[in-house]
UniProtKB/TrEMBL annotation:
It comes from Buchnera aphidicola subsp. Diuraphis noxia. It holds the Pfam family Amidohydro_1. This is Dihydroorotase. Catalyzes the reversible cyclization of carbamoyl aspartate to dihydroorotate. The keyword Hydrolase applies. Zn(2+) 1 binds at H17, H19, K103, D252. Residues 15-342 form the Amidohydrolase-related domain.
């Protein structure tokens, strides 16, 4: 159902899940996020992951130095959990507002995730402390057993890991990150949004697994969790179009250099920071659900994290926006999601 709206002024959104990397990649990508979003949760899976407060402070400073000086962007840092995480470090970091949350990567579930956490029991003492202090746990929710079909890993994670985890830690605040399946939608929406929410990426709302193989293999659509069947994409769209408060924006923008994407072992990850917000607007418009855009982008996240919504606003206008074809990084390039394509929405300048 088309909506004839040509201008939207809304509370400035936040991106509750983004990878900014370091050094020359960071410098090239960070201002895209800073332009569209006031705050973002920064993923800790660097080559040398962020596992303690001093690393987080220094990474945060590195991000702020890479920003344009007129930007009011606030990076919100996360701690990468592993078998050796010290609960006291998390507690100090959380109370001093160095960390907003801690991130659980089941061992080798995605890029830079050798956490050695092969079973949730390995970190029970850490989760107990997080539950006690009200520190949110962000989860890459896929089972890691190699015998499980890649398309089933997320649904199996709910059954085998998330349900028992929530039984043992019923007051632990959890975000199931970048959900991709109808099973996740059904599970999340039936629970108390104070304790369990989920983020959804633009690419999982726009594409299904056929797109990855359309006209030849498309390495730039390879991400984890992998794109799924269309019934799952439809379930994700339907739930955000209903205005359900359990779901909020998390772009999962994950840049990689072209040479690492186009390789015998191509890296997983989609860089979408140059268009993520404009994609979300396009999706909500297409569904006739623009009235729920602001809660998804700017309100449901702060409510879960117990922080104020932003005071600033942003204005989007119905005007063609051409997504950059490529972003030069030294002698290499990053190719953005929907590279060179035109969207119907732009930021008002
Ligand atoms: N998925 N790639 C990356 C992260 C995400 O699971 C994720 O959050 C990455 O490159 O850091 C990806 O495919
Ligand atoms: Zn992940
Ligand atoms: Zn991610």
């Amino acid at each position: 159902m088309a909506e004839f709206i040509t201008k939207i002024t809304m509370i400035k959104p936040d991106d509750w899940h983004v990878h900014l990397r370091e050094d020359k990649i960071l410098k090239k990508v960070v201002n895209y996020t800073g332009t569209f979003y006031k705050r973002a949760i920064i993923m800790p899976n660097l080559n040398n992951p962020i596992t303690n407060c001093s690393q987080a402070i220094s990474y945060r400073n590195q991000i702020l130095r890479a920003m344009n000086s007129n930007c009011i962007f606030q990076p919100l840092m996360t701690c990468y959990l592993n078998r050796f995480t010290i609960p006291e470090e998390l507690e100090i970091g959380f109370f001093k507002k160095i960390f907003i949350a801690a991130k659980l990567y089941p061992n080798c579930s995605t890029t830079n995730s050798k956490t050695n956490i092969k079973k949730i029991d390995h970190i029970a003492h850490i989760l107990e402390r997080m539950e006690k202090i009200g520190m949110p746990l962000l989860i890459h929710g896929e089972e890691i057993n190699k015998n499980i079909d890649i398309y089933d890993k997320e649904a199996m994670f709910i059954e085998n890991t998330l349900k028992p985890l929530r039984k043992n830690f019923s007051k632990l605040k959890i975000v199931l990150e970048h959900i991709t399946t109808k099973e996740s939608v059904e599970y999340i929406k039936s629970k108390n949004a104070k304790y369990l929410c989920a983020t959804i990426t633009p690419h999982h709302l726009m594409l299904n697994r056929n797109h990855m193989f359309s006209g030849g293999i498309q390495p730039y659509l390879y991400c984890l969790p992998i794109l799924k069947r269309d019934i799952h994409r439809k379930a994700l769209r339907k739930v955000i179009a209903s205005g359900d408060k359990h779901f909020f924006l998390g772009s999962d923008s994950a840049p990689h250099l072209h040479k690492n994407k186009i390789n015998i072992f191509g890296y997983s990850g989609i860089f979408n920071a140059s268009s993520s917000l404009l994609c979300y607007v396009t999706i909500f418009e297409k569904m006739g659900a623009l009235k729920h855009l602001q809660s998804f982008c700017s309100e449901n996240g702060p409510k879960f994290y117990n922080i104020p919504v932003n005071k600033e606003t942003i204005t989007l206008v119905k005007k063609p926006y051409k997504i950059p074809k490529q972003i030069n990084v030294g002698k290499d390039v990053i190719i953005p999601f929907l590279s060179g394509k035109i969207l119907n929405w732009s930021l008002e300048t």
